[in-house]
Amino acid sequence: MRQGERTKNKIIQAALELFVRQGYHGTSINDIMQKVRVTKAAFYSHFDSKGQLLLRIIREYESRYIDHLIRAIADHASDPIGKLHRAISFSADFAVKNPELCLFLDHLTIELSADADFLPALKKVHDKYSRFLRGIIAEGIKQRLINKEYDPELTALTFMAIHQGVLNQWSLRRRQLNGRKYVKNYRRVIMNGLKA
Q1: Angle at the Cα of 73 (from 70 to 78), degrees rounded to 5?
Q2: How confident is the model at residue 191 (pLDDT cuts 50, 70, 90)?
Q3: Which of 70, 147, 182, 183 has its CA 20 to 30 A from that of 93?
Q4: Which secondary structure element, helix H or strand E, spans residue 156, and what is its range?
Q5: What is the C-alpha to C-alpha distance for residues 142 and 140, in angstroms, rounded to an integer?
Q6: Alpha helices in 26-151 (DSSP H)
Q7: Do 152 and 137 contact (CB within 8 A), yes or no?
């Protein structure tokens, strides 16, 4: 990897960590430059603005997390219940290996939801994940594996909301929680509630 690419990746990683910890508006370009130890010229040789950097991180979240999750579940040879189990496992593994990236969108969605510059990109990622889950849930209802009284769209959004809450609690209590037990309990609560 070239030096320029290494610097760009360091800027992205530093911004990601700072955005999760301090929020987008609470993080300045100077904060990012200090964390990476680069000059203003080096920062601006890779990104035109902090906003452009944020949009790049949103795209990275989409490709590294959402797109990989969708492929892993779509390729998983099982029924819809098995696919939802796979979604929980994939997300738990991803969170352990990429905590900042996993927490990124959840932490910043509320802060940026009123920002016209970022709302379309945020909505696109959330909608992609929601549509995918909705399809699995609808298929589960069709196969009589998931309670037919559940609306697929609302159930997908609820699944996402509970997952977001699980991540938030994990980020607050990482050192106190037994991760395996926590995910197992989350899985049991979600899956037992969905079954027909």
Answers
A1: 155
A2: confident
A3: 147
A4: helix 152-173
A5: 5
A6: 29-36, 40-46, 50-61, 68-74, 80-97, 99-112, 119-142
A7: yes
Q: DSSP state, 150?
A: S
The answer to whether residues 39 and 55 belong to one domain is: no
DSSP state, residue 66: I
CB 95 within 8 A of CB 32: no
**Cβ atoms 23, 118 nearer than 8 A:** no
* Both structure tokens of 113: 């939801």
Amino acid (one-letter) located at 105: L
Structural domain range at position 10: 1-47
Number of domains in the chain: 2
Residues 39 and 85 grouped into a single domain: no
The gap between the terminal CA atoms of the chain, to the nearest Å, is: 51
- Please state, in angstroms and rounded to a whole number, the distance separating the CA atoms of residues 126 and 118: 13
pLDDT 10s digits, 127-163? 999 999 999 999 999 999 999 999 999 999 999 999 8
Q: Measuring CA to CA, how many Å separate 135 from each of 54, 181, 186? A: 29, 28, 21
Q: What is the mean pLDDT of residues 91-107?
A: 85
Distance CA 110, CA 115 (A): 10
Give the angle subtended at the CA of 80 by the CAs of 97 and 87, to the nearest 5°.
Answer: 10
Vertex 62 angle, CA 131 and 169, to 5°: 85
Q: Do residues 47 and 53 lie in contact, with contact meaning Cβ atoms separated by under 8 Å?
A: yes
